[in-house]
Structures are given as structure tokens and as C-alpha cells.
Amino acid sequence: MRCTTTALLATLASTVSAQAGDWQQCGGMNWSGATICGGTAGCVKINDYYSQCQPGAAPTVPQPTPAPQPEPQQPQPSEVPSSGAPAGSGPGKTLQTGYYWIRAVAAPNFHKYMQTKPLYATGSALLGDYTTAGQFQIVDGQLVQLVSAPGEPAKLLYGVVSETRYINDNSLSVTFSETKNTYGKFAWQGDGLTWTVAGVTRPNASAWYVCTGQKLYINLGNYLYQTPAGCADQTIHYYNDKTANN
Predict the structure, then answer these.
(1) Which of 5, 93, 135, 221 fits as disulfide partner to 99, beta carbons 3.0 to 4.6 Å?
(2) Where along the chain do its domains lie?
(3) Half-sphere exposure of 244 toward its Cβ, with a 13 Å CA cutoff?
(4) CATH topology of domain 101-239
(5) Are 217 and 173 in contact (CB under 8 A)?
(6) Is the pLDDT of residue 212 over 90?
């Protein structure tokens, strides 16, 4: 019996010593001491670094402070990663049979031509100089770019429309990829390049934006209305002369 009583007293003493007294610290960031208050005191959080045993407060056990979480990233216009090597050597500066140049016909991008960056490789669609103009066609609703040299087997890249909206929440980025587009269809309206998709009503199916870095975006809104900063409204058209010109 004596041994049992002695062990019980030791256990009680240990329990008491593990409790913080009134007005003592009972928690906080990096705190390694007692976290339970004795008597009728409760552990009250003062700040992330200090909690205190306060008589009469509801007894609580301080919870560990969670690590700060990174803020979610806002979506940015998508890019198709380049492999670092051109997808093709390019069709040259003479228009190949069955293909078109595509260019703008209004300021500030008058006679700027559609192409990719990097040239003839997977990447963003943009309007650039006539000396590096790409050659394009529409096949079964796909906007295709010829990137192989004359006499080589035809190698194509496909214009891919992002389903994520950018800039003014009314713009879709266009990149070129080795895989076909699955969102919407391209078509010619007269000589203008259009894009449509089920479920999205566009006031002008041929409305485009040319924004920072000369990148092309499909404009889902009204043409020449509430144009976002850094962008210009544009329609783009095919051109079938043998050589591109400025």
C-alpha cells in the first residue's frame, strides 16, 4: 500500500508541475513549456507568440499556429512550352500552294503578319514583321500553320484556343501546338479569320486583340469598345500574293 500511495503522489506531482500557474505563459509560437492551466484558469491567446493562463477563463488548450499558406496565383496567359528546337525549318518566303498569309489591315498593326514565337515552333500566336510571316490554312475547323520546308513532307502546327479567360476576363489566348485544338472552330468569313464555339455568343466573330508583345487574343466582347490597356482592336485577313509585303 505504501508503494502504491507513493507512486500516486508522484504522478499527481508530475501532473501539477506540467500545468502553468495563473498569469503564466501557456502557449505561443515555438513555446515548449506547459500548455494546460491549473485550477479554474483558461489558456487565452494574446497573439501568435504568447498565450496566458487567466483565472476564470474557459479552460482551453492552445492550438498550434498553422504555417502561412501561399496566396493563389492569378491565371496568366497560357504559353505552349517550346522544346528549344524549331518544329520545322519553315516554308520559305514564297507562298506555298494551298496556304495563305494572315495579316492585319488597320493601324497600329497595318500589314503585320501572323506567326509564332519562336518562329516555326510551338509558342504564342502574334503579329510580326512581314519578313518572318507564317503560312496558314483552315482545315476542318482547325487553324493550321505549315512549318516544313518546300519539298519536305508537310509538317503542321495547330492554333489552340485557351478556355481560360484573360486580361479583361473577355479574352482568350491563342498558341500553336503539335496537338489539335479542342475548343471552338476557326473559319473564313469573306477573307476575315473568325472563331466560334458553342455556348459563347460573340458580337463580332472576327474581333481580335493585339496586346503586349504583339500577342494575339480572341476578343469575346464588342469590337472597339472597352479595349483593355495595352491592347489594340484588330481584324485579321488572309492574303494570297506570292510574297508577303509591308
Answers:
(1) 135
(2) 7-55, 101-239
(3) 28
(4) Trefoil (Acidic Fibroblast Growth Factor, subunit A) (2.80.10)
(5) yes
(6) yes
Beta pairing class for 232-234 and 50-55? unpaired
* 9 vs 124, more confident: 124
Show the cell assigned to 177.
501546338
Tell me the C-alpha distance between 183 and 91, whole Å: 27
CB atoms within 10 A of CB 28: 18
User: Phi and psi for 72 in degrees, rounded to 5?
Assistant: -65, 140
Whether the per-residue pLDDT at 75 is higher than 70: the answer is no
- Residues making up the chain, counted from first to last: 246
Backbone angles phi, psi at 61, to 5 degrees: -105, 120
Q: Which three cell numbers stand for residue 47?
A: 497573439
The pLDDT, as a whole number, for residue 71 is 44
Residues 6+ apart with CB under 8 A from 12: none
